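sry for the spam today, last one i promise. C-alpha coordinates for design, 478 residues
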Protein backbone atom coordinates (compact mmCIF):
# COMPACT_ATOMS: atom_id res chain seq x y z
CA UNK A 1 0.00 0.00 0.00
CA UNK A 2 1.38 3.44 -0.87
CA UNK A 3 2.25 5.14 2.40
CA UNK A 4 1.03 8.61 3.31
CA UNK A 5 4.08 10.90 3.15
CA UNK A 6 4.50 13.48 5.87
CA UNK A 7 4.11 16.71 3.90
CA UNK A 8 6.80 19.33 4.43
CA UNK A 9 6.39 22.64 2.60
CA UNK A 10 8.75 22.61 -0.34
CA UNK A 11 8.60 23.96 -3.89
CA UNK A 12 8.30 20.89 -6.14
CA UNK A 13 7.88 22.78 -9.41
CA UNK A 14 10.59 21.32 -11.66
CA UNK A 15 10.87 24.55 -13.63
CA UNK A 16 11.66 26.46 -10.44
CA UNK A 17 14.11 23.74 -9.39
CA UNK A 18 16.02 23.82 -12.70
CA UNK A 19 16.02 27.59 -12.57
CA UNK A 20 17.52 27.50 -9.05
CA UNK A 21 20.22 25.06 -10.21
CA UNK A 22 20.98 27.34 -13.15
CA UNK A 23 21.29 30.41 -10.89
CA UNK A 24 23.69 28.63 -8.55
CA UNK A 25 26.04 27.86 -11.45
CA UNK A 26 25.54 31.19 -13.25
CA UNK A 27 26.58 33.08 -10.10
CA UNK A 28 30.01 31.45 -10.36
CA UNK A 29 30.47 32.35 -14.03
CA UNK A 30 32.01 35.38 -15.61
CA UNK A 31 29.41 35.98 -18.32
CA UNK A 32 27.24 39.07 -18.97
CA UNK A 33 23.86 38.92 -17.21
CA UNK A 34 21.95 39.43 -20.50
CA UNK A 35 23.64 36.43 -22.09
CA UNK A 36 22.93 34.22 -19.08
CA UNK A 37 19.27 35.35 -19.15
CA UNK A 38 19.12 34.41 -22.85
CA UNK A 39 20.39 30.92 -22.05
CA UNK A 40 17.99 30.46 -19.15
CA UNK A 41 14.75 31.47 -20.85
CA UNK A 42 12.69 29.00 -22.85
CA UNK A 43 12.45 30.17 -26.50
CA UNK A 44 8.91 28.93 -27.22
CA UNK A 45 6.23 26.49 -26.06
CA UNK A 46 3.47 24.98 -28.13
CA UNK A 47 0.35 23.73 -26.41
CA UNK A 48 -2.42 21.93 -28.23
CA UNK A 49 -5.73 20.31 -27.35
CA UNK A 50 -6.71 17.64 -29.84
CA UNK A 51 -9.51 15.11 -30.18
CA UNK A 52 -9.22 11.33 -30.51
CA UNK A 53 -12.17 9.08 -31.35
CA UNK A 54 -12.37 6.32 -28.76
CA UNK A 55 -15.19 3.89 -29.58
CA UNK A 56 -18.21 6.10 -30.22
CA UNK A 57 -16.94 8.87 -27.94
CA UNK A 58 -14.64 11.81 -28.68
CA UNK A 59 -11.97 12.39 -26.02
CA UNK A 60 -9.74 15.46 -25.79
CA UNK A 61 -6.06 15.40 -24.87
CA UNK A 62 -3.60 18.19 -24.11
CA UNK A 63 -0.03 18.03 -25.41
CA UNK A 64 3.04 20.29 -25.32
CA UNK A 65 6.35 20.72 -27.10
CA UNK A 66 8.77 23.18 -25.56
CA UNK A 67 11.79 24.51 -27.45
CA UNK A 68 14.27 25.78 -24.95
CA UNK A 69 17.21 26.90 -27.08
CA UNK A 70 17.85 27.31 -30.81
CA UNK A 71 21.61 27.93 -30.47
CA UNK A 72 22.06 24.60 -32.29
CA UNK A 73 19.65 22.90 -34.65
CA UNK A 74 17.77 20.66 -34.74
CA UNK A 75 16.33 20.72 -31.25
CA UNK A 76 16.14 17.42 -29.49
CA UNK A 77 14.27 15.86 -26.62
CA UNK A 78 12.01 13.04 -25.51
CA UNK A 79 8.26 12.71 -25.73
CA UNK A 80 6.50 11.74 -22.51
CA UNK A 81 3.08 10.13 -22.15
CA UNK A 82 1.99 10.51 -18.54
CA UNK A 83 -1.10 11.76 -16.73
CA UNK A 84 1.19 13.98 -14.62
CA UNK A 85 2.65 15.94 -17.55
CA UNK A 86 2.21 19.72 -17.42
CA UNK A 87 3.69 22.73 -19.19
CA UNK A 88 6.11 23.73 -16.44
CA UNK A 89 7.52 20.21 -16.29
CA UNK A 90 7.97 20.10 -20.08
CA UNK A 91 9.72 23.50 -20.09
CA UNK A 92 12.05 22.36 -17.31
CA UNK A 93 12.86 19.10 -19.09
CA UNK A 94 13.56 21.04 -22.32
CA UNK A 95 16.04 23.25 -20.45
CA UNK A 96 17.74 20.15 -19.00
CA UNK A 97 18.06 18.86 -22.59
CA UNK A 98 19.91 22.01 -23.68
CA UNK A 99 22.38 21.65 -20.82
CA UNK A 100 22.71 17.89 -21.28
CA UNK A 101 23.46 18.15 -25.01
CA UNK A 102 26.06 20.85 -24.40
CA UNK A 103 27.66 18.80 -21.64
CA UNK A 104 28.21 15.74 -23.85
CA UNK A 105 28.99 17.74 -27.01
CA UNK A 106 25.88 16.68 -28.88
CA UNK A 107 25.16 19.50 -31.36
CA UNK A 108 21.45 20.02 -30.61
CA UNK A 109 19.33 22.59 -28.80
CA UNK A 110 17.06 21.33 -26.02
CA UNK A 111 13.40 20.45 -26.43
CA UNK A 112 10.81 18.23 -24.75
CA UNK A 113 7.26 17.14 -25.40
CA UNK A 114 4.45 15.42 -23.60
CA UNK A 115 0.83 14.42 -23.72
CA UNK A 116 -1.26 14.21 -20.57
CA UNK A 117 -2.43 10.63 -20.90
CA UNK A 118 -2.00 7.36 -19.05
CA UNK A 119 -0.90 5.04 -21.88
CA UNK A 120 -1.82 1.99 -19.77
CA UNK A 121 -5.46 3.06 -19.91
CA UNK A 122 -5.72 3.17 -23.71
CA UNK A 123 -5.98 0.32 -26.19
CA UNK A 124 -3.01 0.15 -28.57
CA UNK A 125 -5.09 1.29 -31.58
CA UNK A 126 -6.23 4.40 -29.68
CA UNK A 127 -2.71 5.11 -28.51
CA UNK A 128 -1.65 4.94 -32.16
CA UNK A 129 -4.39 7.38 -33.17
CA UNK A 130 -3.32 9.74 -30.38
CA UNK A 131 0.37 9.55 -31.33
CA UNK A 132 -0.32 10.15 -35.02
CA UNK A 133 -2.70 13.05 -34.36
CA UNK A 134 -0.22 14.70 -31.99
CA UNK A 135 2.51 14.29 -34.64
CA UNK A 136 0.32 16.10 -37.16
CA UNK A 137 -0.27 18.90 -34.67
CA UNK A 138 3.52 19.24 -34.27
CA UNK A 139 3.94 19.16 -38.02
CA UNK A 140 1.41 21.93 -38.61
CA UNK A 141 3.44 24.27 -36.41
CA UNK A 142 6.88 23.21 -37.61
CA UNK A 143 7.69 21.57 -34.27
CA UNK A 144 9.03 18.40 -35.89
CA UNK A 145 11.47 17.71 -38.73
CA UNK A 146 15.02 16.38 -39.28
CA UNK A 147 16.48 19.91 -39.26
CA UNK A 148 13.94 21.45 -36.87
CA UNK A 149 12.95 19.33 -33.91
CA UNK A 150 13.52 15.62 -33.37
CA UNK A 151 11.58 13.73 -30.65
CA UNK A 152 12.75 10.53 -28.92
CA UNK A 153 11.33 8.11 -26.33
CA UNK A 154 10.82 9.09 -22.73
CA UNK A 155 8.49 7.92 -19.95
CA UNK A 156 5.52 6.05 -21.40
CA UNK A 157 6.82 5.96 -24.99
CA UNK A 158 9.21 3.65 -26.83
CA UNK A 159 10.19 2.29 -30.23
CA UNK A 160 6.59 1.56 -31.24
CA UNK A 161 5.49 5.19 -30.79
CA UNK A 162 8.64 6.46 -32.56
CA UNK A 163 7.81 4.26 -35.60
CA UNK A 164 4.27 5.73 -35.70
CA UNK A 165 5.72 9.25 -35.52
CA UNK A 166 8.14 8.55 -38.37
CA UNK A 167 5.42 7.00 -40.54
CA UNK A 168 3.08 9.95 -39.96
CA UNK A 169 5.80 12.50 -40.72
CA UNK A 170 6.80 10.53 -43.84
CA UNK A 171 3.19 10.47 -45.08
CA UNK A 172 3.12 14.27 -45.12
CA UNK A 173 6.58 14.65 -46.73
CA UNK A 174 6.48 12.27 -49.69
CA UNK A 175 9.71 11.86 -51.59
CA UNK A 176 11.87 13.66 -49.02
CA UNK A 177 14.92 11.53 -48.47
CA UNK A 178 15.85 12.52 -44.91
CA UNK A 179 12.46 11.84 -43.28
CA UNK A 180 13.85 9.05 -41.12
CA UNK A 181 15.87 11.59 -39.15
CA UNK A 182 12.64 13.29 -37.92
CA UNK A 183 12.60 11.09 -34.80
CA UNK A 184 15.07 8.82 -32.97
CA UNK A 185 14.65 5.73 -30.84
CA UNK A 186 12.98 3.92 -33.75
CA UNK A 187 13.09 0.13 -34.13
CA UNK A 188 16.35 -0.98 -35.79
CA UNK A 189 14.27 -2.26 -38.72
CA UNK A 190 12.88 1.27 -39.22
CA UNK A 191 16.12 3.22 -39.33
CA UNK A 192 16.89 2.91 -35.63
CA UNK A 193 20.39 2.19 -34.41
CA UNK A 194 21.66 -0.80 -32.48
CA UNK A 195 22.23 0.13 -28.85
CA UNK A 196 19.69 3.01 -28.65
CA UNK A 197 17.19 0.99 -26.66
CA UNK A 198 19.80 0.25 -24.00
CA UNK A 199 21.65 3.57 -24.34
CA UNK A 200 20.42 5.50 -21.31
CA UNK A 201 20.86 2.53 -18.96
CA UNK A 202 24.28 1.82 -20.46
CA UNK A 203 25.24 5.47 -20.07
CA UNK A 204 24.26 5.20 -16.39
CA UNK A 205 26.56 2.19 -16.10
CA UNK A 206 29.46 3.98 -17.85
CA UNK A 207 28.94 7.08 -15.71
CA UNK A 208 29.02 5.14 -12.43
CA UNK A 209 32.04 3.17 -13.64
CA UNK A 210 33.88 6.42 -14.31
CA UNK A 211 33.16 7.70 -10.81
CA UNK A 212 34.77 4.48 -9.54
CA UNK A 213 37.90 5.20 -11.61
CA UNK A 214 39.01 7.47 -8.74
CA UNK A 215 39.63 5.10 -5.83
CA UNK A 216 40.58 7.81 -3.32
CA UNK A 217 37.32 9.60 -3.91
CA UNK A 218 35.41 6.34 -3.43
CA UNK A 219 37.33 5.62 -0.20
CA UNK A 220 36.44 9.11 1.03
CA UNK A 221 32.77 8.08 0.78
CA UNK A 222 33.47 5.17 3.12
CA UNK A 223 33.35 2.56 0.34
CA UNK A 224 35.94 0.07 -0.87
CA UNK A 225 37.19 0.86 -4.37
CA UNK A 226 35.77 -1.22 -7.24
CA UNK A 227 32.18 -1.74 -8.31
CA UNK A 228 32.09 -5.49 -7.68
CA UNK A 229 29.82 -6.42 -4.78
CA UNK A 230 28.37 -2.92 -4.37
CA UNK A 231 24.77 -2.95 -3.15
CA UNK A 232 22.48 -1.14 -5.56
CA UNK A 233 18.80 -0.18 -5.18
CA UNK A 234 16.85 1.03 -8.22
CA UNK A 235 13.53 2.85 -8.44
CA UNK A 236 11.82 2.14 -11.78
CA UNK A 237 12.11 -1.01 -13.86
CA UNK A 238 11.35 0.66 -17.20
CA UNK A 239 13.71 1.28 -20.06
CA UNK A 240 16.39 3.07 -18.05
CA UNK A 241 16.12 1.17 -14.76
CA UNK A 242 16.01 -2.27 -16.35
CA UNK A 243 19.11 -1.86 -18.52
CA UNK A 244 21.06 -0.11 -15.76
CA UNK A 245 20.22 -3.03 -13.45
CA UNK A 246 21.17 -5.63 -16.04
CA UNK A 247 24.50 -4.12 -17.04
CA UNK A 248 25.62 -3.26 -13.50
CA UNK A 249 24.81 -6.77 -12.25
CA UNK A 250 25.96 -8.82 -15.25
CA UNK A 251 29.04 -6.84 -16.28
CA UNK A 252 30.22 -5.12 -13.09
CA UNK A 253 29.15 -7.73 -10.50
CA UNK A 254 27.05 -5.28 -8.53
CA UNK A 255 24.35 -6.75 -6.30
CA UNK A 256 20.94 -5.32 -7.18
CA UNK A 257 19.37 -5.71 -3.75
CA UNK A 258 16.07 -3.90 -4.40
CA UNK A 259 13.93 -2.81 -7.34
CA UNK A 260 10.89 -0.56 -6.96
CA UNK A 261 7.98 -0.20 -9.34
CA UNK A 262 4.68 1.72 -9.28
CA UNK A 263 2.98 -1.16 -7.45
CA UNK A 264 5.67 -2.12 -4.92
CA UNK A 265 9.22 -3.29 -4.27
CA UNK A 266 11.09 -6.59 -4.46
CA UNK A 267 14.27 -7.08 -2.49
CA UNK A 268 16.92 -9.69 -1.83
CA UNK A 269 20.13 -8.87 0.09
CA UNK A 270 21.99 -11.50 -1.98
CA UNK A 271 21.04 -9.77 -5.23
CA UNK A 272 18.13 -10.14 -7.67
CA UNK A 273 18.51 -11.93 -11.00
CA UNK A 274 17.49 -9.16 -13.34
CA UNK A 275 16.80 -11.14 -16.53
CA UNK A 276 14.57 -13.52 -14.56
CA UNK A 277 12.78 -10.63 -12.85
CA UNK A 278 12.09 -9.11 -16.27
CA UNK A 279 10.55 -12.41 -17.47
CA UNK A 280 8.54 -12.69 -14.25
CA UNK A 281 7.03 -9.23 -14.81
CA UNK A 282 6.25 -10.10 -18.43
CA UNK A 283 4.30 -13.18 -17.38
CA UNK A 284 2.59 -11.86 -14.24
CA UNK A 285 2.29 -8.16 -15.07
CA UNK A 286 4.14 -7.13 -11.89
CA UNK A 287 7.58 -7.50 -10.32
CA UNK A 288 5.90 -8.47 -7.03
CA UNK A 289 5.95 -12.09 -5.78
CA UNK A 290 9.23 -12.80 -7.56
CA UNK A 291 10.43 -16.16 -6.23
CA UNK A 292 13.18 -15.87 -3.60
CA UNK A 293 12.59 -12.15 -3.04
CA UNK A 294 10.68 -10.24 -0.40
CA UNK A 295 7.74 -8.21 -1.76
CA UNK A 296 6.80 -4.88 -0.19
CA UNK A 297 3.57 -3.14 -1.20
CA UNK A 298 4.89 0.41 -0.61
CA UNK A 299 6.62 1.65 -3.81
CA UNK A 300 8.52 4.38 -1.91
CA UNK A 301 10.28 1.79 0.28
CA UNK A 302 12.95 1.19 -2.36
CA UNK A 303 14.36 4.67 -1.77
CA UNK A 304 14.95 3.91 1.89
CA UNK A 305 16.88 0.70 1.29
CA UNK A 306 20.31 0.74 2.93
CA UNK A 307 22.67 0.51 -0.03
CA UNK A 308 25.90 1.82 -1.58
CA UNK A 309 24.34 3.22 -4.76
CA UNK A 310 20.74 4.38 -5.04
CA UNK A 311 19.48 4.88 -8.60
CA UNK A 312 16.17 6.69 -9.01
CA UNK A 313 15.10 5.81 -12.58
CA UNK A 314 11.40 6.66 -12.64
CA UNK A 315 9.94 10.07 -11.79
CA UNK A 316 10.96 13.51 -10.58
CA UNK A 317 10.67 14.77 -6.99
CA UNK A 318 11.19 11.37 -5.41
CA UNK A 319 13.67 12.44 -2.75
CA UNK A 320 12.33 15.49 -0.95
CA UNK A 321 12.41 16.97 2.53
CA UNK A 322 9.70 14.45 3.44
CA UNK A 323 11.94 11.39 3.08
CA UNK A 324 15.55 12.60 2.75
CA UNK A 325 16.37 11.80 6.37
CA UNK A 326 15.53 8.14 5.71
CA UNK A 327 17.78 7.85 2.61
CA UNK A 328 20.66 5.48 3.42
CA UNK A 329 23.07 5.49 0.49
CA UNK A 330 26.62 6.68 -0.15
CA UNK A 331 26.06 7.52 -3.81
CA UNK A 332 22.89 8.88 -5.38
CA UNK A 333 23.02 8.25 -9.12
CA UNK A 334 20.30 10.27 -10.87
CA UNK A 335 19.15 8.21 -13.83
CA UNK A 336 15.74 9.92 -13.88
CA UNK A 337 15.37 13.61 -14.58
CA UNK A 338 14.98 15.75 -11.46
CA UNK A 339 14.50 13.01 -8.83
CA UNK A 340 16.00 15.10 -6.00
CA UNK A 341 14.81 18.50 -4.74
CA UNK A 342 17.41 21.21 -4.00
CA UNK A 343 16.63 21.26 -0.27
CA UNK A 344 16.90 17.50 0.02
CA UNK A 345 20.13 17.64 -1.99
CA UNK A 346 21.63 20.13 0.48
CA UNK A 347 20.97 17.68 3.30
CA UNK A 348 22.49 14.74 1.41
CA UNK A 349 25.60 16.73 0.46
CA UNK A 350 26.01 17.78 4.09
CA UNK A 351 25.98 14.10 5.04
CA UNK A 352 28.74 13.44 2.49
CA UNK A 353 26.60 11.62 -0.09
CA UNK A 354 27.95 11.87 -3.64
CA UNK A 355 25.22 13.01 -6.04
CA UNK A 356 25.86 12.17 -9.71
CA UNK A 357 23.61 14.67 -11.50
CA UNK A 358 20.93 13.82 -14.06
CA UNK A 359 22.19 16.17 -16.79
CA UNK A 360 25.32 14.05 -16.92
CA UNK A 361 24.23 10.57 -15.90
CA UNK A 362 21.25 10.08 -18.20
CA UNK A 363 22.85 11.74 -21.24
CA UNK A 364 23.51 8.34 -22.86
CA UNK A 365 20.08 8.37 -24.51
CA UNK A 366 20.56 11.63 -26.37
CA UNK A 367 24.15 10.73 -27.24
CA UNK A 368 23.05 7.58 -29.08
CA UNK A 369 20.04 9.42 -30.52
CA UNK A 370 22.60 11.75 -32.10
CA UNK A 371 24.34 8.71 -33.61
CA UNK A 372 20.98 7.49 -34.94
CA UNK A 373 20.10 10.90 -36.44
CA UNK A 374 23.46 11.16 -38.19
CA UNK A 375 23.14 7.54 -39.42
CA UNK A 376 19.73 8.42 -40.92
CA UNK A 377 21.23 11.43 -42.72
CA UNK A 378 24.19 9.36 -43.92
CA UNK A 379 21.81 6.62 -45.15
CA UNK A 380 24.27 3.90 -44.23
CA UNK A 381 24.77 1.68 -41.21
CA UNK A 382 27.90 2.50 -39.21
CA UNK A 383 30.61 -0.11 -39.74
CA UNK A 384 29.15 -1.34 -43.02
CA UNK A 385 32.10 -0.22 -45.14
CA UNK A 386 34.97 -0.60 -42.68
CA UNK A 387 34.16 -3.70 -40.67
CA UNK A 388 35.42 -6.36 -43.10
CA UNK A 389 38.55 -4.34 -43.82
CA UNK A 390 39.35 -4.24 -40.09
CA UNK A 391 38.77 -7.99 -39.83
CA UNK A 392 41.14 -8.76 -42.68
CA UNK A 393 43.79 -6.43 -41.18
CA UNK A 394 43.31 -8.31 -37.90
CA UNK A 395 43.79 -11.67 -39.65
CA UNK A 396 47.09 -10.44 -41.18
CA UNK A 397 48.24 -9.13 -37.81
CA UNK A 398 47.44 -12.39 -36.01
CA UNK A 399 49.29 -14.42 -38.67
CA UNK A 400 52.29 -12.11 -38.44
CA UNK A 401 52.39 -12.17 -34.64
CA UNK A 402 52.01 -15.96 -34.56
CA UNK A 403 54.79 -16.37 -37.14
CA UNK A 404 57.21 -14.02 -35.36
CA UNK A 405 56.25 -15.08 -31.81
CA UNK A 406 56.34 -18.78 -32.65
CA UNK A 407 53.13 -19.59 -30.77
CA UNK A 408 49.40 -19.31 -31.52
CA UNK A 409 47.40 -16.39 -30.15
CA UNK A 410 44.22 -17.61 -28.51
CA UNK A 411 41.41 -16.55 -26.17
CA UNK A 412 40.10 -13.00 -25.76
CA UNK A 413 43.22 -11.39 -27.34
CA UNK A 414 42.61 -13.30 -30.57
CA UNK A 415 38.92 -12.31 -30.55
CA UNK A 416 39.78 -8.63 -30.05
CA UNK A 417 42.37 -8.63 -32.85
CA UNK A 418 40.03 -10.36 -35.31
CA UNK A 419 36.96 -8.27 -34.60
CA UNK A 420 35.83 -5.59 -37.06
CA UNK A 421 33.82 -2.69 -35.64
CA UNK A 422 30.11 -3.48 -36.07
CA UNK A 423 27.38 -0.89 -35.50
CA UNK A 424 26.68 -1.95 -31.89
CA UNK A 425 30.42 -1.89 -31.02
CA UNK A 426 30.85 1.55 -32.54
CA UNK A 427 27.79 2.92 -30.75
CA UNK A 428 28.90 1.56 -27.38
CA UNK A 429 32.45 2.78 -27.82
CA UNK A 430 31.21 6.25 -28.85
CA UNK A 431 28.93 6.30 -25.83
CA UNK A 432 31.63 5.16 -23.44
CA UNK A 433 34.11 7.75 -24.74
CA UNK A 434 31.46 10.45 -24.36
CA UNK A 435 30.56 9.49 -20.77
CA UNK A 436 34.22 9.21 -19.74
CA UNK A 437 35.31 12.57 -21.12
CA UNK A 438 32.19 14.42 -19.91
CA UNK A 439 32.71 13.11 -16.35
CA UNK A 440 36.36 14.14 -16.34
CA UNK A 441 35.42 17.60 -17.59
CA UNK A 442 32.85 18.03 -14.79
CA UNK A 443 35.17 16.55 -12.17
CA UNK A 444 37.96 18.90 -13.30
CA UNK A 445 35.76 21.94 -12.63
CA UNK A 446 34.54 20.50 -9.30
CA UNK A 447 38.03 19.63 -8.04
CA UNK A 448 39.89 22.68 -9.38
CA UNK A 449 37.47 25.46 -8.50
CA UNK A 450 37.18 25.97 -4.79
CA UNK A 451 33.81 27.74 -4.88
CA UNK A 452 32.07 25.00 -6.89
CA UNK A 453 30.21 23.05 -4.18
CA UNK A 454 29.12 19.89 -5.99
CA UNK A 455 29.13 17.90 -9.23
CA UNK A 456 25.76 19.28 -10.37
CA UNK A 457 26.94 22.89 -10.23
CA UNK A 458 30.15 21.85 -11.99
CA UNK A 459 28.12 20.11 -14.73
CA UNK A 460 25.97 23.23 -15.22
CA UNK A 461 29.08 25.42 -15.44
CA UNK A 462 30.61 23.19 -18.14
CA UNK A 463 27.33 23.14 -20.10
CA UNK A 464 26.49 26.84 -19.74
CA UNK A 465 29.98 27.83 -20.79
CA UNK A 466 29.57 25.94 -24.07
CA UNK A 467 26.14 27.42 -24.78
CA UNK A 468 27.43 30.91 -23.90
CA UNK A 469 30.34 30.52 -26.33
CA UNK A 470 27.99 29.41 -29.13
CA UNK A 471 25.61 32.33 -28.52
CA UNK A 472 28.45 34.87 -28.34
CA UNK A 473 29.80 33.64 -31.66
CA UNK A 474 26.37 33.72 -33.29
CA UNK A 475 25.52 37.19 -31.99
CA UNK A 476 22.03 38.57 -31.46
CA UNK A 477 19.89 39.08 -34.57
CA UNK A 478 19.51 41.68 -36.06
P1 LIG B 1 9.68 4.09 -18.67
O1 LIG B 1 8.28 4.55 -18.86
O2 LIG B 1 10.26 3.10 -19.61
O3 LIG B 1 9.90 3.53 -17.19
C1 LIG B 1 9.51 4.19 -16.04
C2 LIG B 1 9.16 3.10 -15.03
O4 LIG B 1 8.91 3.71 -13.78
C3 LIG B 1 7.90 2.33 -15.43
O5 LIG B 1 8.20 0.95 -15.41
C4 LIG B 1 6.89 2.73 -14.37
O6 LIG B 1 5.97 1.70 -14.05
C5 LIG B 1 7.81 3.03 -13.19
N1 LIG B 1 7.17 3.86 -12.17
C6 LIG B 1 6.16 4.74 -12.28
N2 LIG B 1 5.85 5.25 -11.08
C7 LIG B 1 6.68 4.69 -10.19
C8 LIG B 1 6.86 4.79 -8.78
N3 LIG B 1 6.13 5.62 -8.04
N4 LIG B 1 7.82 4.05 -8.19
C9 LIG B 1 8.59 3.22 -8.93
N5 LIG B 1 8.46 3.07 -10.25
C10 LIG B 1 7.52 3.79 -10.88
O7 LIG B 1 10.55 5.44 -18.63
P2 LIG B 1 12.11 5.56 -18.86
O8 LIG B 1 12.33 5.88 -20.29
O9 LIG B 1 12.82 4.43 -18.23
O10 LIG B 1 12.41 6.93 -18.06
C11 LIG B 1 12.66 6.93 -16.66
C12 LIG B 1 13.33 8.25 -16.29
O11 LIG B 1 14.53 8.39 -17.04
C13 LIG B 1 12.50 9.50 -16.59
O12 LIG B 1 12.80 10.48 -15.62
C14 LIG B 1 13.04 9.95 -17.94
O13 LIG B 1 12.84 11.34 -18.18
C15 LIG B 1 14.51 9.62 -17.76
N6 LIG B 1 15.24 9.48 -19.02
C16 LIG B 1 14.89 8.55 -19.95
C17 LIG B 1 15.62 8.45 -21.13
C18 LIG B 1 15.33 7.39 -22.17
O14 LIG B 1 16.11 7.26 -23.11
N7 LIG B 1 14.27 6.62 -22.06
C19 LIG B 1 16.70 9.32 -21.36
C20 LIG B 1 17.04 10.25 -20.39
C21 LIG B 1 16.30 10.33 -19.22
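last one done:
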Amino acid sequence: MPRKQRKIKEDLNLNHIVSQQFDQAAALMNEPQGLLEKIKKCDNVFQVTFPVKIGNKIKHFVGWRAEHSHHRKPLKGGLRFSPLVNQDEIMALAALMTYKCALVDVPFGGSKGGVAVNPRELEVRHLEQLTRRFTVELLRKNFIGPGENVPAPDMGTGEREMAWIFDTYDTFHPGEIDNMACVTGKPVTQGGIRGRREATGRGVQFGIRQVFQHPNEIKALGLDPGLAGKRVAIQGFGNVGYYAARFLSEQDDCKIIAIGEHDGVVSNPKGLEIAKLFKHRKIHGSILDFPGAKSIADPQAVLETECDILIPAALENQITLSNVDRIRTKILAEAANGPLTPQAEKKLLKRGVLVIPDIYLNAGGVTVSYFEWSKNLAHIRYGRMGSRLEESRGEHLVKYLEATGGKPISGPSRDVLLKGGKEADLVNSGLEGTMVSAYEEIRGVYRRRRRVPDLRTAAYIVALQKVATALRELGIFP
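The pocket of nicotinamide-adenine-dinucleotide is lined by residues 78, 153-156, 200, 235-241, 260-262, 299, 313-315, 335-337, 362, 365 (CB under 6 Å). ok im logging off now
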